[in-house]
Amino acid sequence: MSDAPMISVRGEAVLEAEPEIARLTVHVQSQESDRRTALDRLTERNQRCLDLVKSYGQAVEKLETGRLSITPLLKYKRREGDIRAYRGTVQIKITVADFGVLGELVARLGDLERTAVDGPEWDLRRESEVYGRAARQAAHEAVARARSYAEALGSRLTGLVELSDEGLGRPQERGVALAAAYGGTGPGGAGAEPEPIDLEPAAQVVRAAVEARFTVSPPDLEPR
């Protein structure tokens, strides 16, 4: 190990950025006295929802079907075979890239029969350049801080011993949560399209931090 003096520092960066995508979670339900009817109704409503989302083309970046279930509902909690209805549920996950259509899409999804919408959850893409920019700023901060300490001691940086990335952190900024009432068209009347909902994107905060150790030239510790 070198006997050269070392300086250890921590560099940090905090950036704010506009979100790049918005995620919606849609829950489609059916409830019927007959299992097969519940499944058929669920299939119809699920297809109607998927067709609506697909009609937005490239504005929707990703469309995924999550969990699907058909559950018997008992009249009494602890008595087997006494079923009052069957409930079907399917979860649909949507990633929207074009915020210009987001308010309209949310309103139209919420207007579908027995459908609930949760979201949007604003986010950055995994490959977003914001993460790289935050990491670079954290590294630059570490170098600047180490150089400042070295100059205060009458030294100069001579080498990098170690640079440790603490990882990128970003709190999830959550938008409005929507729970659309089950059961058909709204006050506008049959066939009327609902008004788009005004949604304001939430800024995303990205944090980066590094730990760094530098070798320095011998300090000048003589009193001045």
Account of the 3D structure:
- With 224 residues, the protein is α+β, with helices and mostly antiparallel strands.
- Helices cover 24% and strands 39% of the residues.
- It is built from 3 helices and 7 strands; from the N terminus they run ββαββαβαββ.
- The chain has helices spanning 35-54, 102-110, 129-152; strands spanning 6-17, 21-32, 60-74, 83-96, 115-123, 157-169, 204-216.
- It has a 4-stranded antiparallel β-sheet with strand order 3-4-2-5. A 3-stranded antiparallel β-sheet has the order 1-7-6.
- The longest helix has 24 residues, at 129-152.
- The two termini are 32 Å apart.
- Mean pLDDT is 87; it is low at 174-183 and 185-189.
The number of helical elements comes to: 3
Total E-strand runs: 7
- Using the alpha-carbon principal axes, give the shape: elongated
Compute the CA-based radius of gyration: 28 Å
Strand content: 35-45%
* Residues in helices, as a percent range: 10-25%
Category by helix and strand content: alpha+beta
